[in-house]
Amino acid sequence: MDAIDRRLLDEFQHDLPLVPDPYAAIGRELGIGAAEVITRLDRLCRAGCVSRVGAVIKPGCAGASTLAAMAVPGDRLEQVAALVSEYPEVNHNYQREHRLNLWFVVTAASREDVDRVLADIRRRSGIEVLDLPMLEDFHINLGFGLQWT
Amino acid sequence: MDVTARELDLINALASGLDLCDAPYAQLGLAVGMDEVEVIERLTELRRRGIVRRLGIIVRHHELGYRANAMVVWDIPDSEVAEIGRRLGQCPEVTLCYRRPRRLPDWPYNLFTMVHGKDRQTVETAIAAIAEREGVAQHPHQPLFSLRRFKQCGARYGRRLAAAE
Q1: In chain B, what are the domain boundaries?
Q2: Domain map of chain A by residue range?
Q3: Residues in B touching A34 (Cβ below 8 Å)
Q4: CATH code for A64-132?
Q5: Which ipTM score applies to this complex?
Q6: Overall average pLDDT of the B9-26 stretch
Q7: Cis preceding linkage at A20, omega within 30
Q8: CB of A5 within 8 Å of any CB in chain B?
Q9: Contact across the interface for A139 and B95, Cβ inside 8 Å
Q10: B155 CB within 8 Å of a chain A CB
Q11: How many residue pairs from chains A and B have C-beta atoms closer than 8 A?
C-alpha cells in the first residue's frame, strides 16, 4: 500500500463523484489515470481491504432491519453461525464476547420478512433469538479517519 | 418508508457494488432499466436527502489493520438516552450510535455504540476516554469485542410493494 492507495481510501469513502466517469474524476484528483484508479481498486478489493464501491443507506429508509443476538453453546457455534449466514437477508454476522455470543443483522423488504427470517432461525436452531431493532439513530458522520502508522 | 420503488431498485442494484469500469453508473443502469443520466440524477437526489448516507469506497476495517472492534452497550435512563445518545454519536471514536429496546431480564442495555481500533488495548483506552469525557462512566456499560466475523456484505432490501411514482 503506497501513498496513492492511502489517499484513495482516505478521500473517497463519502462522496464518489456523481459524473459519468467517476474513476477518471478521482484520478484527476490523485494525478493518475482512470485505468490506474481501477487497477488499484481492483487490487485493494482482491486484498480484502475494500469491500466494494457502493452506498451506505440510512437505517430505516429502505426496507426493514434488526440486530439479532443468540446465546449459542460453544460446541454448536460453527454450525449455528453457518445456518445464520446462509440467509441472504443476513448481511453481518459476528461472534462477540458475551453470553449472547452470536450477533447478526437481518435486512429485508418488510418487517414481516424480517420476522419470518428470525422465526425460521429460531425454529431451525432451537435457540431463542433476541430481536433488537433500531429505535433511534444518533450518529453524526464526521468520517472515519484512517491512521496509517 | 422514504423511498420509491424505482429508488429501491437502484439501491438494491448497488448492494454488490459499482463495477470497476469506465462508466459504472451507465453499467448499473442496465440492471434496472435506467440510463446513465437517470442513475446519476437519482443517486444525487438520494444523497441530498440523506438516504444514501455515503457513496464511495467501503473499506474493511479488519483488513486495514483495525483488528479490534467493540460494540459498547450502555444502560442509560430513558429520560437521558436521547441527550447522551446525541453526544456519544458525535464522538470521533464512535462509528455507529443507535438506541435499541431493552429486553429484560436478559438484556438491560438501550444504547449501542461501535468503536474500532488497531488492537484491543487501543479500543479499551478509547472507551474509557469517551466514558470519562462525556460523563457517562457511572452508567452500566460493557464492551462486546468481536471474536470472529462470519459474514459481512452489503444489505439487500428485497422487493416490496411501494407507492407508484
Answers
A1: 5-48, 68-145
A2: 3-46, 64-132
A3: 22
A4: 3.30.70.3460
A5: 0.81
A6: 94
A7: no
A8: no
A9: yes
A10: yes
A11: 249
Provide the residue type at B123 as one letter.
V
Task: Scan for cell 443502469, then name that residue.
Answer: B29
Q: What is the pLDDT of residues B105-141, one digit of tens each?
A: 989 999 999 999 999 999 999 999 999 999 999 999 9
Nine cell digits for residue A50? 475494500
| CATH topology for the B68-145 domain | Alpha-Beta Plaits (3.30.70)
Cβ partners under 8 Å of residue A39, min gap 6? none
- What length does chain A have? 149
Is the pLDDT confidence value at A144 over 80?
no
- Kindly report whether the peptide bond that precedes residue B105 is cis, defined as omega within 30 degrees of 0: yes
Tens digit of pLDDT for each residue in A52-91? 999 988 877 878 899 999 999 999 999 999 999 999 999 8
| Nearest of B50, B127, B76, B150 to residue A83 by alpha carbon | B150
Find the helix or strand (DSSP H, E) in which B73 lies: strand B68-74
